[in-house]
């Protein structure tokens, strides 16, 4: 039996026990993304798909995170939890194993989940989104952690909303309201988690598979910057990347699983949240530090 709990409901996150609205000093959290159970065998062209390698990588990450001092405020997985999309034949098995493995995370470290294209489907609709939300919680929501405001988006609605126009309209309306409220919220910093990055290196780069359409991207980056968003953490590319739009940093983190470049290695990112700003560093699974110096 797993003690996995759905924490995101009614557009809020319920994984913290206390009031998180006030700044109590520096802390750290962990970003992992694209564990994508089943992708390594799929990309290798195997007929009989398993995900032992992804499970092994998750175990390394969770073991390291559980051993960390100070204890991370939370562990966020930025989408593509499993390879199979809603309704695909191994989806249930992959989800079950994801839940089994992530349930091994220290119960005092909340698990924050973001939906990716594999989670809600490439062309999401009400049914495919429900397939994700019933198991993992809301596909978009907001929360406080240690005086910092966090938004979690469903970027697949930006990639293809042809079967989810109404859902996208609700998402966008919610987001604009959140950005507006953020301005006067008194938050120390504002951070966004979204699976697909706005851009990979430059805010005005052309549209490719791994970023978001340019015109809409530039409009939204300006709105984010105006609302005071400092960092956007994403995955999806299976390769580390990133850049700046004015004072806003877009961070693209490589996968906990399959890598785009043979020279890259699966890992996680440690994020330090300090009064003066937010810094971060990617670590390969075998190289994750157990002691984090928040003064550094
Ligand atoms: Zn993806």
UniProtKB/TrEMBL annotation:
GO terms for molecular function: metal ion binding; protein serine/threonine phosphatase activity. The keyword Hydrolase applies. It holds the Pfam family Metallophos. Coiled coil: none annotated. One of its GO terms (cellular component) is cytoplasm. It catalyses: O-phospho-L-seryl-[protein] + H2O = L-seryl-[protein] + phosphate; O-phospho-L-threonyl-[protein] + H2O = L-threonyl-[protein] + phosphate. This is Serine/threonine-protein phosphatase CPPED1. It comes from Strongylocentrotus purpuratus (Purple sea urchin).
